[in-house]
Design goal:
With 298 residues, the protein is α+β, with helices and mostly antiparallel strands. The protein is built from seven helices and seven strands. The protein folds into two domains: 2-76; 146-293, Histidine kinase-like ATPase, C-terminal domain (Heat Shock Protein 90), CATH 3.30.565.10. The longest helix is centred in the first third of the chain and has 61 residues, at 46-106.
């Protein structure tokens, strides 16, 4: 029985059942046995019932132990895989940056040429990977620090870095921060990481010479930050796929494909939702929808 219960714990984990469902499954076995005995008019004695309960208790312990052991292993494997992927991407970008720097150091080419551009892209890629990793750590730590934030001031702060990235990518950026005095309550670092990632994705996937827009919409109780790109749109039914970990938007496989998944978690931890609208043939509009807070008391 112990061997079969252990196998049961393994099977139920692989099929996606929770540990609670594992336990309830054995409770169903007990109920089925007693109902069958009643139907067959074969009463169960007190000693027999105690024996049945003891056997089921041992089976539950074996199944849950195996379930927990395998689940822990899967989490460790997942964490190891992600750490390995991060290290691999960091090494690739660092190697490219070092090679580019070595060529520039020799003085045979100028910083303003193609080699300088490769170095710049590598350094920006390193910064994005590190920012993403820090955002993920902050999301998983659940150590958020909420504060009152003026929406327009927040968007203007995001615009400063976004302008530099847009110019480096050869794109046009339009920002409409809205009126001052609209208040949200959020963890500033988490929200900034989410919006920055959406902007980076917009710059990455927008066609050459294209246009990225960051705008805000405000109602009596909601605040919406919209980032519109010109990526050409998404295949039908693919919008939600973007938010799954390790999913990437195009044949460009740089990065870990974790950004949008982390961004959604960051927005949700701030009481909001991150969604996307497809503009077929044109692009996408990512929306950060947050609750609006009342004005501070005077």
């Amino acid at each position: 029985m112990g061997a079969s219960a252990t196998q049961q714990g393994d099977d139920m984990l692989r099929m996606g059942f929770t540990v609670g469902q594992v336990v309830h499954g054995y409770g169903d076995v007990c109920q089925a046995v007693t109902e069958l005995a009643f139907e067959r008019e074969a009463p169960i004695t007190v000693d027999e019932f105690r024996t049945l309960n003891r056997c089921l208790d041992d089976a539950i312990a074996s199944a849950v132990t195996e379930y927990g052991r395998l689940r822990e292993l899967s989490l460790v494997d997942s964490g190891t895989e992600r750490l390995g992927a991060l290290a691999h991407e960091l090494r690739n970008r660092l190697n490219t940056a070092m090679l580019s720097f070595g060529i520039l150091k020799d003085g045979s080419v100028t910083v303003g040429g193609s080699t300088g551009a490769v170095l710049e892209r590598s350094l920006r890629g390193l910064a994005e990977l590190i920012d993403g990793a820090l955002a993920e750590v902050r999301v998983e730590s659940k150590g958020q620090r909420q504060e009152r934030i003026d929406l327009a001031e927040f968007v203007e702060e995001m615009e400063i870095a976004a302008i530099i990235e847009a110019k480096a990518s050869g794109l046009e950026l339009t920002v409409h921060p809205g009126e001052h005095g609209v208040i949200i309550e959020a963890d500033r670092q988490l929200l900034a990481a989410a919006v920055a990632n959406l902007l980076q994705n917009a710059f990455k996937f927008t066609r050459d010479g294209g246009h990225v827009r960051l705008t805000t919409r405000v109602t009596s109780d909601r605040v919406v930050i919209e980032i519109e790109d010109e990526c050409g749109g998404l295949p039908p039914g693919q919008a939600e796929e973007l938010f799954r970990p390790f999913t990437q938007r195009s044949t460009d496989r740089s990065g870990l494909g974790l950004g949008l998944s982390i961004s959604r978690k960051a927005v949700q931890l701030n009481g909001g939702e991150l969604g996307v609208r497809n503009l077929p043939g044109k692009g996408c509009v990512f929306t950060v929808d947050l609750p609006r807070k009342g004005e501070p008391a005077h």
